[in-house]
Design goal:
Elements: E1 4-7, E2 10-13, E3 16-17, H1 18-25, E4 29-33, H2 34-46, E5 58-62, H3 69-76, E6 81-84, H4 87-95, E7 103-105, H5 112-121, E8 125-128, H6 131-143, E9 148-155, E10 177-178, H7 182-190, E11 195-201, H8 211-230, E12 237-239, H9 256-267, E13 273-276, H10 280-283, E14 287-298, E15 303-307, H11 316-320, E16 326-328, E17 338-344, E18 353-361, E19 368-371, E20 393-397, E21 400-405, H12 410-415
Parallel strand pairs: 4-20, 5-6, 5-13, 6-7, 7-8, 8-9, 9-10, 9-11, 11-12, 12-13, 15-17
Antiparallel strand pairs: 1-2, 2-3, 4-14, 14-15, 14-19, 16-19, 17-18, 20-21
Helix pairs in contact: 5-6, 8-9
């Protein structure tokens, strides 16, 4: 469910007409719904109310899905933790008011500087992904005379049945410790002076639309927990990552209630605190991208709607062949006629194509269209390719809205560069 609906013939974000935002902010822009963010977080977190095996689960929103400060602050006030994968995301989480004890640090390439900052912040745990990382963390913690709380991310070699670029749990992926090495690596960690083992971590991929891969991975992890306890390790936490999908197209992913029920059945007897890292499930359908039609161009065999949004603003279709629903901001009626379009952007790349053969009401220059399910991995992955400034982000709350990231001027973009002395007059 989301809060982008037609009212009086026009698409609204909650109670705000999108044409009003477009007129005042300009296009293209991202628009997020507070009501949807809050609802999705509480639906996910609430699904575990009846399934907590020990302590209350910690739900850490994945900042890589949407790192805007207003979005993080909105979720922090609902009690969300944050899953970070960089020092920058750590700083954002802290600035949003998230205490260290609600932050987990994932990622394969943590630097010593990032480790130090995380230890100073008192984060809940590091999800360690390699032996060199483990050694570096032990050294950094030792230099600070503290112990670093860790889980080790294990790779269960389970096919997540998702796009190959967002699958993370196969043996050939860069993430985590190989399954056959897990006991040895835990033994090494247990012998380190400045490492405190607290649990096990697993994350098999993103945008999963079936519970089967989750269940297969979690069953393997449950067996590992028992083995590690037999080896003398204290395993009190189980970080099950994120990955629950959203309905981008006609697929219907499992409801969080069904996911929670499966988790309880598979790992509920372990007595571990559960940690989750949802991102897309919370933010994906809480955001849209609004764009203007610049031209409609008739090709020899295809009709193109050329938009003012481009692949640098929303790269998912180009990078992942991702499907986004695209609808007109002005509601069609029973008398509307339809045409088939390829929707493309102005960037000088054939890959700057959002959709092919989409049937839409007849489009003209100046019409507004909205890309649905654009709240996750949209703005955070955008760039300034073709010297196109980043586009604004807007947050709606009821009948109010605010620009939460303004559109830079081209002068600001140029001003980031520096001319060396030998090129100056």
């Amino acid at each position: 469910m989301h809060h982008f609906e037609y009212h009086n013939g026009e698409l609204h974000a909650e109670d705000v007409p999108l044409s009003k935002i477009a007129a005042e902010v300009g296009t293209p822009f991202y628009c997020y719904s507070t009501a949807t963010l809050v609802r999705h977080y509480n639906v996910f977190a609430g699904a575990f109310d009846n399934h907590a095996a020990q302590d209350k689960p910690l739900v850490c929103f994945s900042a890589k899905a949407n790192g805007n400060q207003a979005v993080l602050t909105t979720l922090a006030r609902e009690g969300a933790g944050i899953d970070v994968v960089s020092g920058g995301e750590l700083a954002r989480a802290l600035a949003a008011g998230v205490p260290g004890e609600r932050i987990v640090f994932s990622g394969v390439g943590k630097t010593r500087e990032e480790m130090r900052a995380a230890l100073e912040a008192g984060i809940y745990q590091f999800n360690v992904e390699s032996e060199p990382e483990l050694e570096a963390l032990n050294d950094v913690a030792g230099s600070m005379n503290v112990k670093a709380p860790i889980t080790i991310r294990v790779n269960p070699d389970v096919d997540a049945q998702t796009h190959e670029k967002i699958a993370t749990g196969k043996a050939e992926n860069k993430f985590g410790i190989s399954w056959g090495w897990a006991r040895d690596v835990y033994a090494r960690a247990g012998a380190m002076d400045n490492i405190q083992i607290v649990g096990v971590d697993v994350h098999i991929g993103s945008q999963l639309t079936s519970l089967d891969p989750f269940a297969a991975a979690f069953r393997r992890v449950a067996e590992l927990v028992q083995t590690l306890r037999d080896d003398g390790h204290t395993i009190d936490r189980l970080d099950l990552g994120g990955g629950l999908g959203i309905p981008y197209d006609e697929l219907t992913p499992p409801h969080p209630d069904d996911y929670a029920h499966m988790v309880a059945q598979v790992v509920g007897n372990l007595g571990c605190q559960l940690i989750f890292e949802p991102g897309r499930m919370i933010a994906g359908n809480a955001g849209i991208l609004v764009s203007d039609v610049i031209y409609v161009k008739q090709g020899e065999n295809r009709r193109f709607a050329i938009l003012d949004a481009a692949m640098n603003d929303l790269i998912r279709p180009s990078l992942y062949d991702a499907h986004h629903g695209i609808i007109p901001v002005k509601a069609p009626d029973s008398s509307s006629t339809y045409e088939t379009y390829d929707l493309v952007g102005p960037v000088c790349e054939t890959g700057d194509t959002f959709a092919k053969n989409r049937e839409l009401p007849v489009l003209q220059s100046g019409d507004l269209v909205a890309f649905l399910s654009a709240g996750a991995y949209g703005a955070v992955m955008s760039s300034t390719y073709n010297a196109r400034p980043l586009i604004p982000e807007v947050l709606v709350n009821g009948d109010q809205y605010a620009v939460i990231r303004p559109r830079p001027r081209i002068e600001d973009l140029i001003g980031l560069d520096r001319i060396p002395d030998w090129l100056k007059d």
